[in-house]
Amino acid sequence: MAPCAAPQKDYPIRPVPFTAVVCTDEFWAPRIETNRAVSIPYAFGKCEETGRMDNFAIAAGRKTGRHRGDFPFDDTDPYKILEGAAYALNVRPDPKLDAYLDDLIDLIAAAQEADGYLYTCRTNKAAYLMNWSGPTRWSKLDGSHELYNMGHLYEAAVAHFEATGKRSLLDVATKNADFLLTVFGPGKNGSAPGHQIIEMGLARLYRATGNEQYLQLAKFFLDTRGPGRNSYHQSHKKPVDQDEAVGHAVRASYMYCGMADVAALTGDTAYLAAIDRLWDNVVSKKLYITGGIGARGSGEAFGDNYELPNESAYCETCAAIGNVMWNQRMFGFHGHARYIDVLERTLYNALIAGVSLEGDRFFYPNPLASSGQHQRSPWFGCACCPGNITRFIASVPGYVYAVKGDTLYVNLYVQGKGKTPLDRTDVTITQTTRYPWDGKVTLTVTPEKSGEFTLALRIPGWAHNEAVPSDLYRFASAGDETVALSVNGKPAGLNIK
C-alpha cells in the first residue's frame, strides 16, 4: 500500500518530521540514543517479564496459562514501546530490532479475534478484571479501556508502516477499526470512550489510509461525549461547550489533542474555539511552573483553579507528554510562540524528569517538593509512563521545526541539522548551540536555490521576562538578558510579531 495523498484539510502549520531532523547536541542527542539503546529494549524486557507478551500468546492459543497483570490496559504497553521502536528504526536501521518487531506483530495479529476485536483480557477470560472490563464487550466503557487499547494500537501501526513499509500491523489496525465502524456511530452504540486516545489514533489512521470513515468515527467519539455525565472522563459537558480543564489530566490532554486533530482535518471551528478556551484556562490557572498538569493524586486529576500545591503535586509523566503534544497542535493552528513556550517549559522540566539519564528508571508522578522519599522506579504495575516515554523521546526531533508555505519556523533551539521543502525551494538548516545551557545560537540556512522565504525564529518568553504566557507566574526579579540578531556577522533588526 502506497502512502495516501495528504488530506485536503489539516493543520495550517505542520511539523518538520523527526525523520528529517538530526540532533547532535549535548542534551537531546544522548537521551535519544539512550532511549534507543537502553529504554526500548529494557521496556520490552519488562513486558516479557511481567506477562504482557504472554497475554497475547495465550489469546493466540500459542501458550496455555492464566492471564497476568492488574489492569485491562496492559496491552498498550507493548503497543507504545513498539511505536517508539518504529520511530527509532525509521532513523537508524537495526535488523535485530526489525526482526523482533516482526515477531511481536505476528503475535499481536494471532491474538486478534476473527471479527477484528483485540483485547487480551477478555479473550483470555480474565474474570478477575471484570470490575474493569465488564461482563461483555463494550458493557463498561468507562473503565474497560477497550477503545484506549485500540487507539494505541493504531498509533503503533501507522508508526511501523511509515518506518518499514510493512502492512503487518497496519492490517491488524484497519481490521479492528473496520470492526468498530460496525459497532459505533449514529444509530449504533453511542457510548463514549472512557479513556481518550482512540480519537487521535483514528485521525492518524485516516491520514495513513485515506479512509474518511475513520475520521468520522473519531469525530463521533467526541460528539457523543456528555453532557451530564462524569467530569473525571470529561463527559460532564459536550466537548465543544467545555471551558475548564477538569478530571483525569491524561484523559483530558489526549481529548484536547483529539479535538485539535478533528478540527484540523474537518474544519470544525467549534472544536478549535473550545480548545482555545481550555488552553487559556490551563495556562492561566492550572499549570505548574514545570509545565506539569494534574494537581491531585486522587483521580490523577486537575484541581480547582489555582490549586497548585508543590509537595502533593501529581504531575503525571503521561500528562506532561499530553501537554506537549497538545501545545504543538495549538501552534499548528495559530503559529504563536506562546504555545512553544509552554511546550518547551514542559519538555525540559515536567516531562524529561520522568526518565533517568541511564534510561531504565522512571517517575510516574513528579511532585515539586520532596523530603527525599521520591525515587525513580524500575517499573510499575500500571506501567503507562515508561512506554509513553519511549515513544515520545524518539520523536523529539519532530518538535524543532515547522513549516507553512514559504515560512520555516524555528521553534526549539537544539544543535543539529534539518531539511524541509518550502513552497519555492528546499532548505537545509543547521544549528550550533549549547542550549539550554547557553542562549547563543548560530543558524546556517542553505536553500537549494536562491529566492525569498521567511525564517521565523521563536523569541522565548523567558528572554523578555515572561515566565509563562499568562499572569500565573512572574520572575522574582527581571533579568538583564537582551535578544540580539546578527545576519552574516552584522547586527540586524528584530521584526517581532
3D architecture notes:
The chain has a 4-stranded mixed sheet with strand order 1-3-4-8, with no helix packed on it. It has a 4-stranded antiparallel sheet with strand order 2-5-6-7, with no helix packed on it. With 497 residues, it is an alpha+beta fold. The relative contact order is 0.12. The longest helix is centred in the N-terminal third of the chain and has 22 residues, at 28-49. The model has no long low-confidence stretch (mean pLDDT 97). It folds into 2 domains: 14-399, Glycosyltransferase, CATH 1.50.10; 416-492, no CATH class. The protein is 43% helix and 9% strand. A hairpin with a 2-residue loop joins strand 3 (401-404) and strand 4 (407-410).
Total of DSSP H or I helical runs spanning 4+ residues: 16
Q: Low-confidence stretches at least 5 residues in length (pLDDT < 50)?
A: none
Side by side, the strands of the main sheet go 1-3-4-8
Number of domains: 2
User: Strand-and-helix sequence, N→C?
Assistant: EEHHHHHHHHHHHHHHHHEEEEEEEE
Percent of residues in helices: 40-55%
Q: In angstroms, what separates the terminal alpha carbons?
A: 43 Å
Question: Strand-residue fraction?
Answer: 5-15%
Structural class by helix and strand composition:
alpha+beta
Average of pLDDT: 97
Q: Can you identify the CATH class of the largest domain? A: Mainly Alpha
CATH topology of the largest domain: Glycosyltransferase
CATH architectural group of the largest domain? Alpha/alpha barrel
Radius of gyration: 22 Å
Shape descriptor: globular
User: What is the number of E strands?
Assistant: 10
User: What kind of sheet is the major sheet?
Assistant: 4 strands, mixed
